[in-house]
Batch of 2 targets.
Target 1
Amino acid sequence: MLKEEDPLIELIREWIMAPIDESAGLQLSTLEVFTLVEDMINEHVKIPHGSRLKKYIPKVKRMFMPLNLMDAVHAYDAVTHFSRRKRVPPTFKDVRHILNLATVHERDFLTRSCTMMMMMMGDYCESSDMVTVIVELLKKGKVVSLVTAAGYPGEPQRYEARLRGVMGGECNYLHITSRDADTGAVSLRVVDPVEWKDGRGQRWDQAEVDQLLDQAQV
């Protein structure tokens, strides 16, 4: 099993479990650490090259939106009471859930990898709790994109069999929900690649593609 790794999450957990400055004996509480990290993230959004976050995580990439991390912490804590634990620090998954929750609060667009979800549910998942969550998000005005490696080119009905009425797609194909003007029935329709692809693949002729693949195998 691959070890879960994320520099930001590991930094947060490290600061919670050990003094930030051992020489000064500086020890922050769990909530104080999240408050500090929220401030550092929002600073990094404004000053990506000279931020404190860049100092602690040199390879951190540019961030484009601030996060209200503490709102997410309080929302997560109201359910899990993780901040009250005395001997068990927040786990990797705890911190990841909080960061994900903060991101969801700031965005109206969510992307969900659903390959494993589809594999576990098989060909019918209308009663799945995950589908219920997705539908509730759609009702709240969120845009939900489900990304999967399961490819059915030109067969959107096969996605419908697994994801009833929810947007589905694959790396080479894009489908969106569409309502029939006559019957009112909602189904998936294929989006013309011209509408969403940038054209790079279409500019290559087959001979160039073959040449590239042949060179890659050398």
Target 2
Amino acid sequence: MITKYKHIVFSIIMLVNLPAISQEKKAKQTNLDYTQYVNPYIGSAGHGHVFVGANVPFGAVQLGPVNVFEGWDWCSGYNYASNTILGFTHTHLSGTGIGDLNDILLLPVSGKVPLTKGTKEDMTTGYGSYFSHKNEVSKAGYYSVLLDKYKIKAELTASERVGFHKYTFNATTDNHVLLDLADGIGWDKPVKTFIKKLNE
């Protein structure tokens, strides 16, 4: 008889504790980092027109690299088939199939600062750099790449309204950050840009 009651008591204890066990399991599951499953490169080749870079959902900034424009497949500013970077711009359209934005280009450089863009065939006389996908990292909210020409590591991240750049320069002197306000994507160019110095 006691054995019979032991089973009933055990069953009641289990039924009472099941919701607590379930809640504990749910709490552990909510701590998962779902960004580990994001692959920002999906759609960045061929006709995908997806930009690769750092942004947050519905953010005002889409910070990412810009390749030498080679046609319609580069209308997001980036195509995985490319090995060139002209700089990092603060606005991109992603997946639209139409070129627009790619405004406010920054590029960290060492040495002489050329004022014309490099080309796919020649990055030595203009600004920009070749890069290797081996030295490129893109994950949700973060992008980094090593610029081969300058031996500079560029890291990008973004908040809702701001893009953050971090540059690790290899050279100790003659380092610069180039700003190109006239850059656009393909056929799209800014109409009027300027810099205004407010104070010393």
